[in-house]
Write a structure and sequence with these properties.
Elements lengths: L6 E7 L3 H11 L6 H4 L5 H13 L10 E10 H7 L6 E4 L16 H4 L2 H23 L4 H4 L8 E9 H11 L6 H17 L27
Length: about 220
């Protein structure tokens, strides 16, 4: 079986997210309402306001921008980690209502690189699906048959976070200390977020300059 390919798409986000958050920041220190100066805010001023505000630690203003991602082809092991980020909204493909007739699972590179183990891994996955299908065909509800499916089973999920939570998410999950699959997803999400809001996310990512694990042998710090 060919490896499942992860797909990450940014399907919607707050229009003009950098400008919205800059207006929120400026409104905190202005006698005008944000709507009075929003249209006249120029890119240079937006950058200056946001950079200064974030540098001072006033991160609440970037909560006014939200981003929604659609992710496909990731394992249930990943989504179990993902939902620990609680300041977010998630809508995940249901194993109760979606019948999983064909084996679809994530195979870690560490296993794929060892042909003898890869064969055993694949056989195990096929066996799990064979039992799943046998249970369903014998009248067992999908919500009960799914108990035999492994953590590697792929899933689709929609994720919505505000920019402040995304910065925190990227801080943790783009780091080399993070598990490889969620790190890959985090890096793809970060690239898309930077396209949508280049100022908000210009310094987002792992905290290499203040690494919580300085003794960890990390490829990022060597660059």
């Amino acid at each position: 079986m060919e490896p499942v390919i992860m797909q990450v798409k940014l399907i919607t986000f707050t229009p003009d997210p950098d400008k919205v958050c800059a207006a929120a920041a400026l409104g905190c220190r202005s006698d005008q309402a944000a709507f009075e100066f929003f249209d006249s805010l120029q890119e240079k001023r937006v950058k200056g306001i946001l950079r200064d505000t974030v540098k001072k630690g006033h991160h609440s203003v970037i909560e006014h921008a939200s981003f929604t991602f659609s992710v496909a082809g990731v394992s249930r092991a990943l989504t179990h980690q993902l939902v620990r980020h609680r300041i977010a909204s998630y809508s995940q493909q249901s194993q109760r209502h979606v019948r999983l007739d064909e084996p679809t699972y994530v195979a870690p590179t560490s296993i794929r690189d060892k042909p003898n183990l890869q064969e055993k891994y694949s056989d195990f996955m096929v066996g799990a699906w064979d039992l799943y299908k046998e249970l369903v065909e014998n009248g067992i509800p999908e919500e009960d048959a799914r108990f035999v499916l492994p953590n590697a089973t792929t899933s689709n999920i929609v994720i919505t976070m505000n920019a402040r939570e995304l910065v925190h998410f990227f801080n943790l999950r783009c780091c080399m200390l993070a598990q490889w699959e969620i790190r890959e997803m985090g890096n793809r999400m970060l690239a898309l977020a930077k396209e949508a809001a280049p100022v908000i996310f210009e310094n987002a990512g792992p905290p290499c300059n203040a690494c919580p694990e300085p003794d960890f042998a990390c490829d990022l710090r060597r660059r």
